[in-house]
Hints:
This protein has twelve helices and five strands. The strands form two sheets. Strands 3-4-5 form a three-stranded antiparallel β-sheet, with helices on one face. The chain has a two-stranded antiparallel sheet with strand order 1-2. About 5% of the residues have low confidence.
Amino acid sequence: MQELLFALWIVAIIAPLVWAWSQKASIALAMTLSLLFGFIVQIIWRIFLDFGELNELRIRLFLVPALVTDGHIHTLVTSGFVHSNPLHVLGNILIIALVGIPLEDRLGRSRWLISYMIGLLGGSIAWTILNLGSITPALGASGAAFGILGAYLCGWPNDEVFFPLILIRKWPVQFIALFYFGFEIYKAWQVYGLNEISNIGHIAHFGGFILAYGTLPLLKKGIEWEGDYELEEIPQEHPFDGVDDLVERLRSEGEFIETRQAWLEEIADRAKCPICSGALQVKKMKVRCVSESSHVRWP
């Protein structure tokens, strides 16, 4: 039963990400489902497993610094997919969904996933280094969530996203990120300066935030469009029918290569060649006729 439920947890974590990747859907949204489904399986563990079996699974997945140095390196990652209670997982999902999805629109799916993992590892490594020899476990995606805030702050601080801070409204990313980071400094000071008791891994939050912030310039490099023409030069009149909404999305969101490619592909899928009514395809960031490339070369 223990191995079966462990396998169920793995499927719950991986399946949403695999599906989203194969369908070219949002990886950030899929990550929220992975964390949620994984926690639901954790609840099932508590129902069907006795204390000894449950403890064995925790040792296999939770981040315990003393065990990391003994070879449990995989827990630097697995610990980011387990949570202690519903509020723990929902708090992380809130940031990943409301801030992570807009960041994915900026970075693209693959770079977003890399940035997410950098934040996760940054938090896990920081916790391990500063707690060497400790048997106190750490778990949760908070390092990755703070990494999202750090990456977004570094890349596009003036973007505004909907977030529940006092009111549910659009807030500048820099305000959200600095509010969380500042509050975390205050809470860490209470713990480490005033010796108050806390079960929150503040060091992991700092590690995820700082490492994701510092590495974002490397991830961001090359994603802004560097073609030989500006987006504004796309003509108002285009040779396709029925895709005006997509052309507008291309104009407004085509600043980055990955999003530009996605909207061009969507236009090619929905439109037909205006010369021969044949199918269209995207080659070298241009929509072309499949039958005769000279028919269409746009934009």
